[in-house]
Design brief:
single chain; alpha/beta; Rossmann fold; seven-stranded parallel β-sheet; 7 strands; globular
Protein backbone atom coordinates (compact mmCIF):
# COMPACT_ATOMS: atom_id res chain seq x y z
CA UNK A 1 0.00 0.00 0.00
CA UNK A 2 1.73 3.14 -1.24
CA UNK A 3 0.14 5.52 1.29
CA UNK A 4 0.58 3.39 4.38
CA UNK A 5 1.37 5.50 7.48
CA UNK A 6 0.50 8.71 5.59
CA UNK A 7 -2.26 11.20 6.44
CA UNK A 8 -4.03 12.88 3.54
CA UNK A 9 -6.26 15.97 3.74
CA UNK A 10 -9.01 16.01 1.12
CA UNK A 11 -10.79 19.32 0.66
CA UNK A 12 -14.09 20.08 -1.00
CA UNK A 13 -15.85 16.74 -0.59
CA UNK A 14 -19.58 17.00 -1.30
CA UNK A 15 -21.06 13.58 -2.11
CA UNK A 16 -20.27 10.12 -3.49
CA UNK A 17 -20.17 11.43 -7.04
CA UNK A 18 -17.46 14.02 -6.39
CA UNK A 19 -13.91 13.50 -7.60
CA UNK A 20 -12.79 14.21 -4.04
CA UNK A 21 -14.70 11.12 -2.93
CA UNK A 22 -13.06 9.02 -5.65
CA UNK A 23 -9.69 10.26 -4.43
CA UNK A 24 -10.64 9.36 -0.86
CA UNK A 25 -11.57 5.81 -1.85
CA UNK A 26 -8.29 5.34 -3.70
CA UNK A 27 -6.15 6.82 -0.91
CA UNK A 28 -7.93 4.77 1.75
CA UNK A 29 -7.40 1.55 -0.21
CA UNK A 30 -3.71 2.41 -0.30
CA UNK A 31 -3.49 2.74 3.47
CA UNK A 32 -3.94 6.47 4.06
CA UNK A 33 -5.53 8.00 7.13
CA UNK A 34 -8.04 10.58 5.88
CA UNK A 35 -8.99 14.06 7.01
CA UNK A 36 -11.66 16.06 5.17
CA UNK A 37 -12.84 19.64 4.86
CA UNK A 38 -16.22 20.70 3.57
CA UNK A 39 -18.12 23.92 2.94
CA UNK A 40 -21.05 24.95 5.13
CA UNK A 41 -21.65 23.87 8.72
CA UNK A 42 -25.19 22.90 7.69
CA UNK A 43 -23.64 20.05 5.66
CA UNK A 44 -21.76 18.52 8.60
CA UNK A 45 -24.17 15.67 9.32
CA UNK A 46 -24.30 14.66 5.65
CA UNK A 47 -20.51 14.75 5.29
CA UNK A 48 -19.88 12.83 8.51
CA UNK A 49 -22.26 10.13 7.34
CA UNK A 50 -20.52 10.06 3.94
CA UNK A 51 -17.04 9.57 5.40
CA UNK A 52 -18.10 7.09 8.09
CA UNK A 53 -16.88 4.23 5.87
CA UNK A 54 -13.32 5.52 6.23
CA UNK A 55 -12.18 4.34 9.65
CA UNK A 56 -10.86 7.15 11.83
CA UNK A 57 -11.67 9.91 9.34
CA UNK A 58 -12.43 13.40 10.63
CA UNK A 59 -14.18 16.33 8.95
CA UNK A 60 -13.71 20.09 9.42
CA UNK A 61 -15.82 22.93 8.04
CA UNK A 62 -13.63 25.31 6.00
CA UNK A 63 -14.34 28.57 4.17
CA UNK A 64 -11.32 29.17 1.91
CA UNK A 65 -12.31 32.76 1.16
CA UNK A 66 -10.80 33.95 4.46
CA UNK A 67 -7.12 33.43 5.32
CA UNK A 68 -7.81 33.69 9.05
CA UNK A 69 -10.32 30.85 8.81
CA UNK A 70 -7.89 28.67 6.86
CA UNK A 71 -5.20 29.28 9.49
CA UNK A 72 -7.59 28.46 12.34
CA UNK A 73 -8.78 25.21 10.76
CA UNK A 74 -5.32 24.09 9.63
CA UNK A 75 -3.95 24.71 13.11
CA UNK A 76 -6.83 22.70 14.58
CA UNK A 77 -6.14 19.84 12.16
CA UNK A 78 -2.47 19.85 13.08
CA UNK A 79 -3.26 19.78 16.80
CA UNK A 80 -5.85 17.00 16.50
CA UNK A 81 -4.50 14.87 13.65
CA UNK A 82 -0.78 15.65 13.51
CA UNK A 83 1.12 16.72 10.44
CA UNK A 84 -0.33 16.03 7.00
CA UNK A 85 1.57 14.19 4.25
CA UNK A 86 -0.69 15.22 1.39
CA UNK A 87 -3.36 17.79 0.54
CA UNK A 88 -5.91 17.50 -2.28
CA UNK A 89 -7.27 20.85 -3.47
CA UNK A 90 -10.72 20.04 -4.86
CA UNK A 91 -12.38 23.43 -4.58
CA UNK A 92 -13.91 25.47 -7.39
CA UNK A 93 -16.90 27.70 -7.90
CA UNK A 94 -18.27 30.19 -10.41
CA UNK A 95 -21.56 32.04 -10.55
CA UNK A 96 -24.16 30.19 -12.60
CA UNK A 97 -24.90 33.24 -14.77
CA UNK A 98 -21.23 33.46 -15.72
CA UNK A 99 -21.28 29.86 -16.93
CA UNK A 100 -24.53 30.09 -18.90
CA UNK A 101 -23.85 33.39 -20.68
CA UNK A 102 -21.12 34.12 -23.25
CA UNK A 103 -17.70 34.61 -21.66
CA UNK A 104 -17.50 38.20 -22.90
CA UNK A 105 -20.41 39.02 -20.60
CA UNK A 106 -18.65 37.76 -17.45
CA UNK A 107 -19.18 40.27 -14.67
CA UNK A 108 -16.22 41.84 -12.89
CA UNK A 109 -17.41 40.42 -9.59
CA UNK A 110 -18.01 36.99 -11.12
CA UNK A 111 -14.52 36.93 -12.63
CA UNK A 112 -12.99 37.84 -9.28
CA UNK A 113 -15.11 35.28 -7.43
CA UNK A 114 -14.23 32.38 -9.74
CA UNK A 115 -10.51 33.09 -9.56
CA UNK A 116 -10.47 33.71 -5.81
CA UNK A 117 -12.38 30.55 -4.98
CA UNK A 118 -10.91 28.25 -7.61
CA UNK A 119 -7.30 29.42 -7.93
CA UNK A 120 -6.17 31.75 -5.17
CA UNK A 121 -7.51 29.33 -2.58
CA UNK A 122 -4.72 26.93 -3.58
CA UNK A 123 -2.08 29.62 -3.01
CA UNK A 124 -3.55 30.53 0.36
CA UNK A 125 -3.84 26.92 1.48
CA UNK A 126 -0.27 26.08 0.46
CA UNK A 127 1.17 29.14 2.18
CA UNK A 128 -0.80 28.72 5.39
CA UNK A 129 -0.23 24.94 5.58
CA UNK A 130 3.51 25.62 5.35
CA UNK A 131 3.49 28.50 7.80
CA UNK A 132 1.57 26.67 10.56
CA UNK A 133 3.67 23.54 10.10
CA UNK A 134 0.80 21.38 8.85
CA UNK A 135 3.04 20.17 6.02
CA UNK A 136 6.81 20.00 5.69
CA UNK A 137 9.52 18.15 3.76
CA UNK A 138 8.21 15.15 1.86
CA UNK A 139 4.62 16.43 1.65
CA UNK A 140 2.66 16.52 -1.59
CA UNK A 141 -0.09 18.89 -2.72
CA UNK A 142 -2.37 17.99 -5.63
CA UNK A 143 -4.98 20.23 -7.27
CA UNK A 144 -7.77 19.17 -9.61
CA UNK A 145 -8.05 20.98 -12.93
CA UNK A 146 -9.68 20.49 -16.34
CA UNK A 147 -8.94 20.68 -20.09
CA UNK A 148 -10.99 23.90 -20.31
CA UNK A 149 -7.91 25.69 -18.97
CA UNK A 150 -6.20 25.42 -22.36
CA UNK A 151 -9.04 24.90 -24.87
CA UNK A 152 -12.40 26.59 -25.36
CA UNK A 153 -15.20 24.37 -24.10
CA UNK A 154 -18.79 25.61 -24.43
CA UNK A 155 -20.27 26.58 -21.09
CA UNK A 156 -16.99 26.43 -19.15
CA UNK A 157 -16.24 30.12 -19.66
CA UNK A 158 -14.80 31.89 -16.60
CA UNK A 159 -14.04 28.56 -14.93
CA UNK A 160 -11.58 27.87 -17.75
CA UNK A 161 -9.81 31.13 -16.93
CA UNK A 162 -9.75 30.19 -13.23
CA UNK A 163 -8.31 26.75 -14.00
CA UNK A 164 -5.63 28.36 -16.18
CA UNK A 165 -4.73 30.56 -13.21
CA UNK A 166 -4.71 27.47 -11.00
CA UNK A 167 -2.31 25.63 -13.31
CA UNK A 168 0.05 28.59 -13.54
CA UNK A 169 -0.09 28.93 -9.76
CA UNK A 170 1.04 25.30 -9.52
CA UNK A 171 4.30 25.92 -11.37
CA UNK A 172 5.15 29.01 -9.34
CA UNK A 173 4.27 27.24 -6.09
CA UNK A 174 6.42 24.29 -7.18
CA UNK A 175 9.36 26.67 -7.51
CA UNK A 176 8.75 28.19 -4.07
CA UNK A 177 8.01 24.94 -2.24
CA UNK A 178 10.62 22.73 -3.91
CA UNK A 179 13.61 23.96 -1.88
CA UNK A 180 11.87 22.87 1.33
CA UNK A 181 10.98 19.45 -0.08
CA UNK A 182 7.27 19.98 -0.78
CA UNK A 183 5.89 18.92 -4.16
CA UNK A 184 2.79 20.24 -5.92
CA UNK A 185 1.09 18.96 -9.06
CA UNK A 186 -2.24 19.06 -10.85
CA UNK A 187 -4.50 16.33 -12.19
CA UNK A 188 -6.62 17.27 -15.19
CA UNK A 189 -9.64 15.01 -15.06
CA UNK A 190 -11.84 14.03 -17.95
CA UNK A 191 -15.49 15.13 -17.70
CA UNK A 192 -17.25 13.40 -14.80
CA UNK A 193 -20.88 13.90 -13.76
CA UNK A 194 -20.28 15.71 -10.49
CA UNK A 195 -22.60 18.20 -8.80
CA UNK A 196 -20.48 21.05 -10.17
CA UNK A 197 -20.73 19.67 -13.71
CA UNK A 198 -24.49 20.22 -13.66
CA UNK A 199 -23.83 23.93 -14.07
CA UNK A 200 -22.07 23.41 -17.42
CA UNK A 201 -24.31 23.70 -20.45
CA UNK A 202 -24.54 20.55 -22.61
CA UNK A 203 -22.22 18.65 -20.29
CA UNK A 204 -23.57 15.29 -21.47
CA UNK A 205 -22.56 16.21 -25.01
CA UNK A 206 -18.99 16.80 -23.84
CA UNK A 207 -18.93 13.31 -22.33
CA UNK A 208 -20.35 11.79 -25.51
CA UNK A 209 -17.66 13.44 -27.64
CA UNK A 210 -14.91 12.26 -25.32
CA UNK A 211 -16.17 8.69 -25.44
CA UNK A 212 -16.23 8.86 -29.23
CA UNK A 213 -12.96 10.71 -29.89
CA UNK A 214 -10.54 9.78 -27.10
CA UNK A 215 -7.95 7.07 -27.84
CA UNK A 216 -9.46 4.77 -25.19
CA UNK A 217 -12.97 5.46 -26.53
CA UNK A 218 -14.49 5.90 -23.09
CA UNK A 219 -14.99 8.31 -20.23
CA UNK A 220 -13.15 8.09 -16.92
CA UNK A 221 -14.31 7.46 -13.36
CA UNK A 222 -13.73 9.49 -10.23
CA UNK A 223 -11.71 6.66 -8.72
CA UNK A 224 -9.43 6.50 -11.78
CA UNK A 225 -8.71 10.18 -11.25
CA UNK A 226 -8.26 9.40 -7.58
CA UNK A 227 -5.66 6.75 -8.43
CA UNK A 228 -3.55 9.41 -10.14
CA UNK A 229 -3.91 11.64 -7.08
CA UNK A 230 -2.82 8.75 -4.86
CA UNK A 231 0.27 8.18 -6.99
CA UNK A 232 1.20 11.86 -6.78
CA UNK A 233 0.71 11.77 -3.00
CA UNK A 234 3.01 8.77 -2.69
CA UNK A 235 6.78 8.48 -2.50
CA UNK A 236 6.67 6.80 -5.91
CA UNK A 237 6.34 10.29 -7.43
CA UNK A 238 9.10 11.83 -5.31
CA UNK A 239 10.82 13.54 -8.28
CA UNK A 240 7.64 14.91 -9.87
CA UNK A 241 6.54 18.49 -9.20
CA UNK A 242 5.00 21.38 -11.13
CA UNK A 243 3.27 19.01 -13.57
CA UNK A 244 -0.26 18.63 -14.92
CA UNK A 245 -1.17 14.95 -15.31
CA UNK A 246 -4.09 14.28 -17.67
CA UNK A 247 -6.48 11.48 -16.71
CA UNK A 248 -8.90 11.74 -19.63
CA UNK A 249 -8.58 8.56 -21.72
CA UNK A 250 -6.11 10.50 -23.87
CA UNK A 251 -8.66 12.99 -25.19
CA UNK A 252 -6.33 15.96 -24.65
CA UNK A 253 -3.84 14.71 -27.28
CA UNK A 254 -6.40 14.71 -30.09
CA UNK A 255 -6.53 17.51 -32.66
CA UNK A 256 -10.08 16.80 -33.78
Amino acid sequence: MILKDKTVLITGIRNKWSIAYGAAVSAYKQGAKLVFTFMGEENREKIEELISEFEGAKAYELDVSEDATIEKVFTQIKNECGKIDGILHSIAHANTDDLKDDFINTSRSGYAHANDCSAYSLVAMARIAKNVGLIDEGSSIVALTYHGSTKVLPGYNVMGVAKAALETSIIYLANDLGPIGIRINGVSAGPIKTLSARGIKDFSTIQDIMAEKSPLRRNVTAEEVGNAVTFLMSDMSSAITGQIVYVDSGYSIMGM
